[in-house]
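Tryptophan synthase beta chain structure dump, as promised
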Amino acid sequence: MAAGQASTSSSRHRIDLDESEMPTRWYNVLHDLPTPPPPPLHPGTHEPIGPEDLAPLFPMDLIAQEVSTDQYVDIPEEVQDVYRLWRPSPLFRAHRLERALGTPARIYYKYEGVSPAGSHKPNTAVPQAYYNAKAGIRRLTTETGAGQWGTALAFACAQYGIECEVWQVRASYDQKPYRRMMIETFGGSVHPSPSELTAAGRAILAADPSSTGSLGIAISEAVEVAAQDPTTNYALGSVLNHVLMHQTVIGEEALLQLAKIGETPDLLVGCTGGGSNFGGLAFPFMRERWAGRMSPQVLAVEPEACPSLTQGTYAYDFGDTAGMTPLMKMHTLGHDFVPDPIHSGGLRYHGMSPLISHLYETGELTAVAKPQSECFAAGVLFARTEGIVPAPEPTHALAAAIEEARRCAETGEEKVILTALCGHGHLDLPAYDAYLHGRVTDHGWSSPDLQASVKDALSRLPQLV
Ligand SMILES: *Cc1c(COP(=O)(O)O)cnc(C)c1O
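C-alpha cells r here:
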C-alpha cells in the first residue's frame, strides 16, 4: 500500500472486516514455540498426563487440541455460524484518547465487548459447547469469577441444546448480581462458591464460613461435580492451551485489520487473568515476529493484588484450590492464595496459563502489575474520550497503554500501540461508582499482608522441580 494511502486510511476511527474475511482457522502457537513448554503432570503419580487422564472432564476433540502441535486447526462450520453473530469484531483507533493525552502515539483497540456476553469469552465457550454436544454430553459445569465466563458458557450451551451449571466466586456473586441474572436468562443455573453442594466447598466453608471464594475454589467445585457424572463435562474459560488457541481469532482479525491501513504494532498490551485474551491477541503477532515480519514488544498487565507473573514463582502447581487438577508448570501465587476482593473479578486467579508462563520465562514477553485505582482512572478517561465503559479487567491494559502514550508525548515517539479491549463494563457500573465516590482502595504488593500471604501460600506448593 502506498504511504499516502496508508496515512489517509489510518485516520479512520473504525476498521471493519467483512463477514467473508473472518478467519476460518485458529492458530496453535505450540507449533512455533522456540522451545516446548514442560508437560502437565498427574496430581497423584506426578507422571506426564495422557489423554485418558483428561477424558472424565473433556471431550476427545478438545483433548486433541490441547496437545496438538499442528500450526492451524479449522474452525467447524457450526462454530463459524455462531461466531458470525458478532464476528469479525471491530478494531478502533483511539483518536480522542490520543488527543486527550497529547500523544503522537497511535493507539488501536480490538473491541470484544460486541459479543453476546460482552467479552472475548464466547470465542472459546462456543467451540467448547459445540465439541461437548457433538460428543453426546448433556451438561457442562464451570466456575466463573466476574461472571463473564459463566455468561458466555450459558449462551454457548443454549446454542447447542445442553445444560450449563455455574459456580460463581462469592465476592462477584454478591457484587455483580446482573451477571447471575444474565446467566439465568441464557438458561444456565448459578451457585455461589464456596457452596454446600460439593466436598471441596464444604471443606472451605468449615474452615472459613465467610469465605469470599476464589476462582481456584470454584474450579474445584465444578470439577468435582463433572468428574462424578459421565454425562457431565467441565469447561474452563482460560489457562488451557485449547482455550488460548480459540481466542486467536482476535489476533488473526487484528492482523488483517491493521494490514488494511498499513500499520504494524510496536507494542501489544493486554490484561492477564489466566492469559486467554492476551494470548489470543498476541500469539498471531508473535508468529509474525518469529517470521521476521514485525517486531512488536509484548506486555502483559496484571493487578497488583494478584501479581502471578511479576511476583509469583514458576513452579508446578494445581489449577484449583483442592488439588484435583493436573499439575501445571506456571507462574503461581500458590493454589490456596485468596486475593483481596478487587473489582476485576476476572483477574483474581492464583496461576497463569502455562503457555504465557513459558513465553514469559523465555523472554518473549514482559509483564507489569498495576494498582486498581490507576486502572479505574484509565477506564474513566477512556469512557469520557472513546465513549465505551471498559470492563475493570482491560482497564489494566489501558493504564499501561496510557502510561506508554504519555511517555511518547514526552519523547515525541510515534509508537503504534495495540490493545485488546476485551469487554465492556456495563454490568460493572457499581465498581465505577465505588471508584468515583472514593471507595476503591489498592491492595498492592508493597503491603506486608499480601507479601506474607503469598509467602505462606507458596510454602505449600507441591515439591516438584
Ligand atoms: C475473563 C476475563 C478476563 C481474564 O481472563 P483472561 O483469560 O486473562 O483473558 C479479562 N477480561 C475480561 C473482560 C474477562 O471476561
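Residues 119, 121, 148-149, 238, 271-278, 346-347, 391, 393-394, 422-423 surround pyridoxal-5'-phosphate (CB under 6 Å).
lmk if u need the other ones
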